[in-house]
Write a structure and sequence with these properties.
With 114 residues, the protein is α+β, with helices and mostly antiparallel strands. The chain has one domain: SH3 type barrels. Strands 1, 2, 3, 4, 5, 6 and 7 form a seven-stranded antiparallel beta sheet that branches.
Length: 114
């Protein structure tokens, strides 16, 4: 079963424009109560090793829990839905604090009430 905040490798297929593409790491941001029901699709935020100073990206440094090999940025501006069948492997988990930062950034981008 997937957990909120899991870092996963996805097969995102062929890209269009500036979309993340092919095999790509991402963070699962779906609510845990949804994941417990084992949905066929989940919300993910792709990760990139290209670190920029975008307000829509959250830097994540590798640690013993997240399974990342290098510093990465969660690209909240690329929030997407992915079939669970696209998940190749679970690497680790970013933890509650980083997941909260990612979700807060998504909420700001979508103009959701805080």
């Amino acid at each position: 079963m997937l957990n909120s905040g899991d870092t996963v490798d996805l097969d995102l297929g062929l890209p269009h424009g500036h979309e993340a593409r092919f095999r790509h790491p991402a963070v699962v941001v779906s609510a845990q109560r949804i994941l417990t029901a084992e949905p066929s699709v989940v919300y993910v935020v792709p990760l990139t090793s290209t670190l920029r100073d975008f307000h829509s990206e959250i830097r994540i440094d590798p640690d013993d829990h997240n399974g990342l090999a290098s510093s990465s940025a969660a690209q909240c501006q690329h929030l997407r839905v992915a079939s669970t069948g696209r998940i190749i492997t679970v690497r680790g988990n970013v933890g509650a604090a980083t997941l909260a930062q990612i979700r807060e950034t998504i909420a700001v981008m979508l103009d959701l009430p805080s």
